[in-house]
Amino acid sequence: MTTDNALTPEQILSAAEDVLRRFGPAKATVVDIARALGVSHGSVYRHFPSKAALRESVTQRWLDQAHDQLATITVERGPAVERLHRWLATLFAAKRKKALDDPELFATYMTLVGEASDTVEAHIETLTGQIASILQDGIHQGAFTPSHAGNAARAVFHATARFHDPEYAGQWSAPRIEEDFEAVWSLLLNGLRSH
Amino acid sequence: MTTDNALTPEQILSAAEDVLRRFGPAKATVVDIARALGVSHGSVYRHFPSKAALRESVTQRWLDQAHDQLATITVERGPAVERLHRWLATLFAAKRKKALDDPELFATYMTLVGEASDTVEAHIETLTGQIASILQDGIHQGAFTPSHAGNAARAVFHATARFHDPEYAGQWSAPRIEEDFEAVWSLLLNGLRSH
Protein backbone atom coordinates (compact mmCIF):
# COMPACT_ATOMS: atom_id res chain seq x y z
CA MET A 1 0.00 0.00 0.00
CA THR A 2 1.21 3.42 -0.92
CA THR A 3 -0.39 6.72 -0.07
CA ASP A 4 -1.29 8.87 -3.05
CA ASN A 5 0.88 11.75 -1.88
CA ALA A 6 4.05 9.71 -1.59
CA LEU A 7 3.58 8.05 -4.99
CA THR A 8 6.62 8.48 -7.24
CA PRO A 9 6.95 7.71 -10.97
CA GLU A 10 9.60 5.14 -10.04
CA GLN A 11 7.10 3.24 -7.84
CA ILE A 12 4.54 3.27 -10.63
CA LEU A 13 7.07 1.94 -13.11
CA SER A 14 8.11 -0.86 -10.75
CA ALA A 15 4.50 -1.82 -10.14
CA ALA A 16 3.86 -1.70 -13.90
CA GLU A 17 6.74 -4.10 -14.43
CA ASP A 18 5.29 -6.53 -11.88
CA VAL A 19 1.84 -6.33 -13.46
CA LEU A 20 3.24 -6.80 -16.96
CA ARG A 21 5.16 -9.82 -15.78
CA ARG A 22 2.06 -11.33 -14.14
CA PHE A 23 -0.61 -10.57 -16.76
CA GLY A 24 1.47 -10.19 -19.92
CA PRO A 25 1.59 -7.11 -22.13
CA ALA A 26 -1.73 -7.86 -23.84
CA LYS A 27 -3.79 -7.92 -20.64
CA ALA A 28 -2.08 -5.57 -18.18
CA THR A 29 -4.15 -2.43 -17.51
CA VAL A 30 -3.64 0.80 -15.61
CA VAL A 31 -6.34 -0.32 -13.17
CA ASP A 32 -4.26 -3.44 -12.38
CA ILE A 33 -1.25 -1.25 -11.72
CA ALA A 34 -3.21 1.14 -9.52
CA ARG A 35 -4.65 -1.83 -7.60
CA ALA A 36 -1.16 -3.27 -7.05
CA LEU A 37 -0.14 0.08 -5.57
CA GLY A 38 -3.33 0.49 -3.56
CA VAL A 39 -4.16 3.82 -5.21
CA SER A 40 -6.83 5.04 -7.63
CA HIS A 41 -6.07 4.87 -11.34
CA GLY A 42 -6.37 8.67 -11.33
CA SER A 43 -3.21 8.76 -9.19
CA VAL A 44 -1.37 6.84 -11.87
CA TYR A 45 -2.67 9.12 -14.61
CA ARG A 46 -1.43 12.12 -12.63
CA HIS A 47 2.12 10.93 -13.44
CA PHE A 48 1.53 9.34 -16.85
CA PRO A 49 -1.03 10.96 -19.14
CA SER A 50 -2.02 7.70 -20.86
CA LYS A 51 -1.55 3.95 -20.79
CA ALA A 52 0.62 4.30 -23.92
CA ALA A 53 2.86 6.86 -22.19
CA LEU A 54 3.21 4.57 -19.18
CA ARG A 55 4.14 1.58 -21.35
CA GLU A 56 6.66 3.70 -23.17
CA SER A 57 8.25 4.83 -19.92
CA VAL A 58 8.45 1.25 -18.70
CA THR A 59 10.14 0.24 -21.95
CA GLN A 60 12.49 3.20 -21.82
CA ARG A 61 13.50 2.36 -18.24
CA TRP A 62 14.21 -1.20 -19.23
CA LEU A 63 16.27 -0.21 -22.27
CA ASP A 64 18.24 2.31 -20.23
CA GLN A 65 19.01 -0.07 -17.37
CA ALA A 66 22.74 -0.18 -18.06
CA HIS A 67 22.67 3.44 -19.09
CA ASP A 68 24.27 4.95 -15.98
CA GLN A 69 27.25 2.61 -16.11
CA LEU A 70 27.69 3.22 -19.85
CA ALA A 71 27.35 6.98 -19.44
CA THR A 72 30.02 6.90 -16.74
CA ILE A 73 32.46 5.00 -18.95
CA THR A 74 31.73 7.49 -21.74
CA VAL A 75 32.77 10.53 -19.72
CA GLU A 76 35.73 8.97 -17.91
CA ARG A 77 39.16 10.13 -18.86
CA GLY A 78 41.64 7.30 -19.43
CA PRO A 79 42.66 5.49 -22.62
CA ALA A 80 39.82 5.28 -25.14
CA VAL A 81 40.77 1.78 -26.30
CA GLU A 82 40.22 0.27 -22.85
CA ARG A 83 37.06 2.34 -22.31
CA LEU A 84 35.51 1.25 -25.61
CA HIS A 85 36.19 -2.39 -24.80
CA ARG A 86 34.70 -1.97 -21.32
CA TRP A 87 31.71 -0.07 -22.72
CA LEU A 88 30.91 -2.88 -25.19
CA ALA A 89 31.50 -5.59 -22.58
CA THR A 90 29.27 -3.76 -20.07
CA LEU A 91 26.46 -3.42 -22.60
CA PHE A 92 26.71 -7.10 -23.49
CA ALA A 93 26.80 -8.18 -19.83
CA ALA A 94 23.77 -6.02 -18.97
CA LYS A 95 21.66 -7.32 -21.88
CA ARG A 96 22.71 -10.89 -21.25
CA LYS A 97 21.90 -10.65 -17.55
CA LYS A 98 18.39 -9.42 -18.37
CA ALA A 99 17.86 -12.18 -20.92
CA LEU A 100 19.15 -15.06 -18.83
CA ASP A 101 18.07 -14.04 -15.32
CA ASP A 102 14.40 -13.56 -16.11
CA PRO A 103 13.51 -14.92 -19.56
CA GLU A 104 9.78 -14.36 -19.07
CA LEU A 105 10.16 -10.69 -18.26
CA PHE A 106 12.62 -10.46 -21.14
CA ALA A 107 10.02 -11.86 -23.55
CA THR A 108 7.47 -9.37 -22.19
CA TYR A 109 9.83 -6.52 -22.85
CA MET A 110 10.62 -7.81 -26.32
CA THR A 111 6.91 -7.36 -27.09
CA LEU A 112 6.90 -3.83 -25.68
CA VAL A 113 10.09 -2.98 -27.55
CA GLY A 114 8.48 -4.20 -30.78
CA GLU A 115 5.70 -1.62 -30.30
CA ALA A 116 7.96 1.31 -29.43
CA SER A 117 10.09 2.00 -32.48
CA ASP A 118 10.63 5.67 -31.58
CA THR A 119 11.80 4.78 -28.09
CA VAL A 120 14.14 2.13 -29.49
CA GLU A 121 15.51 4.53 -32.08
CA ALA A 122 16.23 7.15 -29.42
CA HIS A 123 17.90 4.47 -27.27
CA ILE A 124 20.15 3.45 -30.18
CA GLU A 125 20.99 7.08 -30.92
CA THR A 126 22.07 7.51 -27.30
CA LEU A 127 24.25 4.41 -27.42
CA THR A 128 25.93 5.22 -30.75
CA GLY A 129 26.43 8.78 -29.49
CA GLN A 130 28.35 7.38 -26.52
CA ILE A 131 30.50 5.19 -28.78
CA ALA A 132 31.18 8.22 -31.00
CA SER A 133 32.24 10.22 -27.97
CA ILE A 134 34.74 7.55 -26.88
CA LEU A 135 36.02 7.27 -30.46
CA GLN A 136 36.48 11.04 -30.55
CA ASP A 137 38.56 10.85 -27.37
CA GLY A 138 40.60 8.08 -28.96
CA ILE A 139 41.20 10.19 -32.05
CA HIS A 140 42.49 12.99 -29.82
CA GLN A 141 44.68 10.53 -27.96
CA GLY A 142 46.11 9.33 -31.29
CA ALA A 143 44.79 5.80 -30.69
CA PHE A 144 42.01 5.77 -33.31
CA THR A 145 42.03 6.94 -36.92
CA PRO A 146 38.43 7.11 -38.29
CA SER A 147 37.80 10.39 -40.10
CA HIS A 148 34.18 10.48 -38.96
CA ALA A 149 33.53 9.30 -35.40
CA GLY A 150 29.74 9.18 -35.89
CA ASN A 151 29.87 6.84 -38.90
CA ALA A 152 32.48 4.64 -37.27
CA ALA A 153 30.33 4.47 -34.12
CA ARG A 154 27.36 3.18 -36.13
CA ALA A 155 29.62 0.59 -37.76
CA VAL A 156 30.93 -0.55 -34.35
CA PHE A 157 27.38 -0.79 -33.02
CA HIS A 158 26.20 -2.84 -36.00
CA ALA A 159 29.26 -5.07 -36.08
CA THR A 160 28.70 -6.00 -32.41
CA ALA A 161 24.94 -6.55 -32.77
CA ARG A 162 25.35 -10.24 -31.95
CA PHE A 163 26.50 -9.15 -28.49
CA HIS A 164 23.76 -6.69 -27.59
CA ASP A 165 20.75 -7.09 -29.88
CA PRO A 166 17.97 -8.95 -28.02
CA GLU A 167 17.20 -10.90 -31.22
CA TYR A 168 20.35 -12.86 -30.41
CA ALA A 169 19.48 -13.60 -26.80
CA GLY A 170 19.12 -17.30 -27.67
CA GLN A 171 22.84 -17.49 -28.37
CA TRP A 172 24.07 -15.67 -25.28
CA SER A 173 24.58 -18.81 -23.25
CA ALA A 174 26.60 -20.54 -25.99
CA PRO A 175 29.94 -21.80 -24.66
CA ARG A 176 32.04 -19.84 -27.17
CA ILE A 177 30.18 -16.56 -26.89
CA GLU A 178 32.85 -14.75 -24.81
CA GLU A 179 35.56 -15.90 -27.16
CA ASP A 180 33.46 -14.76 -30.15
CA PHE A 181 33.00 -11.37 -28.54
CA GLU A 182 36.73 -10.93 -28.02
CA ALA A 183 37.48 -12.03 -31.60
CA VAL A 184 35.08 -9.44 -33.02
CA TRP A 185 36.51 -6.84 -30.64
CA SER A 186 40.10 -7.54 -31.80
CA LEU A 187 39.10 -7.22 -35.42
CA LEU A 188 37.25 -3.95 -34.82
CA LEU A 189 40.03 -2.55 -32.66
CA ASN A 190 42.50 -3.30 -35.40
CA GLY A 191 40.21 -1.53 -37.84
CA LEU A 192 39.90 1.57 -35.63
CA ARG A 193 43.51 1.82 -34.64
CA SER A 194 46.28 4.03 -35.91
CA HIS A 195 49.05 1.94 -37.39
CA MET B 1 1.83 -35.37 -62.90
CA THR B 2 5.12 -37.18 -62.74
CA THR B 3 5.76 -40.82 -63.40
CA ASP B 4 7.42 -42.67 -60.55
CA ASN B 5 10.40 -43.64 -62.64
CA ALA B 6 11.30 -40.12 -63.68
CA LEU B 7 10.95 -38.74 -60.15
CA THR B 8 14.07 -36.89 -59.02
CA PRO B 9 14.98 -35.65 -55.53
CA GLU B 10 14.96 -32.11 -56.94
CA GLN B 11 11.31 -32.48 -58.05
CA ILE B 12 10.34 -33.78 -54.62
CA LEU B 13 12.10 -30.86 -52.92
CA SER B 14 10.34 -28.34 -55.18
CA ALA B 15 6.97 -29.95 -54.51
CA ALA B 16 7.73 -30.01 -50.79
CA GLU B 17 8.45 -26.29 -50.90
CA ASP B 18 5.09 -25.62 -52.61
CA VAL B 19 3.25 -27.76 -50.08
CA LEU B 20 5.03 -26.11 -47.15
CA ARG B 21 4.12 -22.72 -48.53
CA ARG B 22 0.46 -23.71 -48.94
CA PHE B 23 -0.16 -25.66 -45.73
CA GLY B 24 2.53 -24.28 -43.42
CA PRO B 25 5.24 -26.32 -41.72
CA ALA B 26 2.92 -27.61 -38.99
CA LYS B 27 0.42 -29.23 -41.39
CA ALA B 28 2.39 -30.28 -44.48
CA THR B 29 2.67 -34.07 -44.81
CA VAL B 30 4.50 -36.46 -47.10
CA VAL B 31 1.10 -37.56 -48.46
CA ASP B 32 0.38 -33.96 -49.51
CA ILE B 33 3.71 -33.83 -51.30
CA ALA B 34 3.13 -37.15 -53.05
CA ARG B 35 -0.37 -35.99 -54.08
CA ALA B 36 1.06 -32.76 -55.54
CA LEU B 37 3.44 -34.89 -57.62
CA GLY B 38 0.80 -37.46 -58.55
CA VAL B 39 2.84 -40.33 -57.08
CA SER B 40 2.45 -42.65 -54.12
CA HIS B 41 4.01 -41.60 -50.82
CA GLY B 42 6.19 -44.70 -51.15
CA SER B 43 7.86 -43.05 -54.15
CA VAL B 44 8.78 -40.10 -52.02
CA TYR B 45 10.11 -42.35 -49.26
CA ARG B 46 12.29 -44.11 -51.84
CA HIS B 47 14.31 -40.87 -52.06
CA PHE B 48 13.94 -39.61 -48.49
CA PRO B 49 13.85 -42.19 -45.69
CA SER B 50 11.60 -40.10 -43.41
CA LYS B 51 9.56 -36.95 -43.22
CA ALA B 52 12.27 -35.47 -40.99
CA ALA B 53 14.96 -36.25 -43.59
CA LEU B 54 12.85 -34.60 -46.28
CA ARG B 55 12.27 -31.47 -44.21
CA GLU B 56 15.97 -31.30 -43.47
CA SER B 57 16.84 -31.54 -47.18
CA VAL B 58 14.33 -28.82 -48.00
CA THR B 59 15.90 -26.59 -45.34
CA GLN B 60 19.40 -27.40 -46.52
CA ARG B 61 18.49 -26.55 -50.11
CA TRP B 62 17.06 -23.24 -49.01
CA LEU B 63 20.07 -22.37 -46.88
CA ASP B 64 22.46 -23.29 -49.69
CA GLN B 65 20.62 -21.30 -52.37
CA ALA B 66 23.41 -18.78 -52.85
CA HIS B 67 25.96 -21.49 -52.27
CA ASP B 68 27.13 -21.96 -55.89
CA GLN B 69 27.79 -18.28 -56.39
CA LEU B 70 29.63 -18.05 -53.08
CA ALA B 71 31.64 -21.20 -53.77
CA THR B 72 32.68 -19.74 -57.14
CA ILE B 73 33.89 -16.50 -55.57
CA THR B 74 35.79 -18.55 -52.99
CA VAL B 75 37.85 -20.45 -55.56
CA GLU B 76 38.42 -17.58 -58.01
CA ARG B 77 41.89 -16.20 -58.29
CA GLY B 78 42.04 -12.40 -58.17
CA PRO B 79 42.56 -10.00 -55.26
CA ALA B 80 41.19 -11.35 -51.98
CA VAL B 81 40.00 -7.93 -50.79
CA GLU B 82 37.62 -7.51 -53.72
CA ARG B 83 36.49 -11.15 -53.49
CA LEU B 84 35.72 -10.93 -49.79
CA HIS B 85 33.66 -7.80 -50.35
CA ARG B 86 31.80 -9.45 -53.23
CA TRP B 87 31.28 -12.66 -51.22
CA LEU B 88 29.70 -10.73 -48.32
CA ALA B 89 27.60 -8.56 -50.66
CA THR B 90 26.41 -11.65 -52.55
CA LEU B 91 25.41 -13.41 -49.34
CA PHE B 92 23.52 -10.33 -48.17
CA ALA B 93 21.79 -9.87 -51.55
CA ALA B 94 20.73 -13.53 -51.68
CA LYS B 95 19.30 -13.55 -48.14
CA ARG B 96 17.59 -10.23 -48.65
CA LYS B 97 16.04 -11.32 -51.92
CA LYS B 98 14.56 -14.39 -50.22
CA ALA B 99 13.21 -12.33 -47.33
CA LEU B 100 11.68 -9.52 -49.39
CA ASP B 101 10.46 -11.39 -52.50
CA ASP B 102 8.41 -14.00 -50.67
CA PRO B 103 7.99 -13.11 -46.99
CA GLU B 104 5.53 -15.95 -46.36
CA LEU B 105 7.88 -18.63 -47.63
CA PHE B 106 10.67 -16.92 -45.70
CA ALA B 107 8.65 -17.21 -42.48
CA THR B 108 8.00 -20.88 -43.24
CA TYR B 109 11.69 -21.50 -43.66
CA MET B 110 12.48 -19.61 -40.48
CA THR B 111 10.36 -22.20 -38.66
CA LEU B 112 12.17 -25.07 -40.38
CA VAL B 113 15.55 -23.51 -39.68
CA GLY B 114 14.62 -23.21 -36.00
CA GLU B 115 14.11 -26.99 -35.90
CA ALA B 116 17.30 -27.93 -37.73
CA SER B 117 20.19 -26.77 -35.57
CA ASP B 118 22.61 -29.37 -37.02
CA THR B 119 21.82 -28.34 -40.58
CA VAL B 120 22.24 -24.68 -39.68
CA GLU B 121 25.52 -25.35 -37.93
CA ALA B 122 26.86 -27.21 -40.96
CA HIS B 123 25.71 -24.35 -43.19
CA ILE B 124 27.55 -21.82 -41.02
CA GLU B 125 30.68 -23.99 -41.00
CA THR B 126 30.62 -24.04 -44.80
CA LEU B 127 30.24 -20.28 -44.99
CA THR B 128 32.95 -19.46 -42.46
CA GLY B 129 35.19 -22.01 -44.19
CA GLN B 130 34.77 -20.06 -47.42
CA ILE B 131 35.60 -16.78 -45.70
CA ALA B 132 38.67 -18.42 -44.16
CA SER B 133 39.78 -19.62 -47.57
CA ILE B 134 39.54 -16.10 -49.05
CA LEU B 135 41.37 -14.68 -46.03
CA GLN B 136 44.10 -17.27 -46.50
CA ASP B 137 44.50 -16.16 -50.13
CA GLY B 138 44.68 -12.57 -48.93
CA ILE B 139 47.38 -13.45 -46.40
CA HIS B 140 49.41 -15.04 -49.23
CA GLN B 141 48.84 -11.98 -51.38
CA GLY B 142 50.12 -9.78 -48.55
CA ALA B 143 46.77 -7.99 -48.31
CA PHE B 144 45.54 -9.41 -44.98
CA THR B 145 47.38 -9.89 -41.69
CA PRO B 146 45.37 -12.14 -39.32
CA SER B 147 47.53 -14.82 -37.78
CA HIS B 148 44.67 -17.35 -37.78
CA ALA B 149 42.36 -17.25 -40.83
CA GLY B 150 39.74 -19.51 -39.18
CA ASN B 151 39.29 -17.29 -36.12
CA ALA B 152 39.25 -14.14 -38.22
CA ALA B 153 36.64 -15.73 -40.52
CA ARG B 154 34.33 -16.39 -37.57
CA ALA B 155 34.79 -12.80 -36.42
CA VAL B 156 33.98 -11.46 -39.92
CA PHE B 157 30.89 -13.68 -40.08
CA HIS B 158 29.66 -12.54 -36.66
CA ALA B 159 30.47 -8.87 -37.26
CA THR B 160 28.36 -8.91 -40.45
CA ALA B 161 25.43 -10.83 -38.91
CA ARG B 162 23.15 -7.83 -39.38
CA PHE B 163 23.60 -8.32 -43.13
CA HIS B 164 22.93 -12.04 -43.42
CA ASP B 165 21.24 -13.38 -40.31
CA PRO B 166 17.51 -13.94 -41.01
CA GLU B 167 16.71 -12.57 -37.53
CA TYR B 168 17.46 -9.16 -39.02
CA ALA B 169 15.25 -9.56 -42.09
CA GLY B 170 12.93 -6.85 -40.74
CA GLN B 171 15.68 -4.27 -41.19
CA TRP B 172 16.75 -5.24 -44.71
CA SER B 173 14.51 -2.72 -46.44
CA ALA B 174 15.69 0.18 -44.26
CA PRO B 175 16.88 3.11 -46.40
CA ARG B 176 20.38 3.21 -44.86
CA ILE B 177 21.05 -0.51 -44.94
CA GLU B 178 23.45 -0.45 -47.93
CA GLU B 179 25.37 2.42 -46.39
CA ASP B 180 25.51 0.54 -43.07
CA PHE B 181 26.84 -2.53 -44.81
CA GLU B 182 29.61 -0.56 -46.50
CA ALA B 183 30.55 1.15 -43.22
CA VAL B 184 30.92 -2.19 -41.43
CA TRP B 185 32.84 -3.54 -44.41
CA SER B 186 35.30 -0.60 -44.33
CA LEU B 187 35.90 -1.07 -40.63
CA LEU B 188 36.47 -4.82 -41.02
CA LEU B 189 38.68 -4.39 -44.06
CA ASN B 190 40.80 -1.93 -42.13
CA GLY B 191 41.01 -4.48 -39.33
CA LEU B 192 42.10 -7.27 -41.67
CA ARG B 193 44.54 -5.27 -43.72
CA SER B 194 48.29 -5.11 -43.59
CA HIS B 195 49.39 -1.58 -42.80
UniProtKB/TrEMBL annotation, chains A, B:
One Pfam family this sequence matches: TetR_N
Keyword flag Transcription: yes
Name of the protein described by the UniProt record: TetR family transcriptional regulator
Keyword Transcription regulation among record annotations: yes
UniProt xrefs under SUPFAM superfamilies: Homeodomain-like, Tetracyclin repressor-like, C-terminal domain
Assigned keywords, A-Z: DNA-binding, Transcription, Transcription regulation
Residue ranges of every copy of the HTH tetR-type domain listed in the record: 6-66
Lineage: superkingdom: Bacteria
Record-linked InterPro entries: DNA-bd_HTH_TetR-type_CS, Homeodomain-like_sf, HTH-type_TetR-like_transc_reg, HTH_TetR, Tet_transcr_reg_TetR-rel_C_sf, TetR_C_27
Regions recorded as binding DNA: 29-48
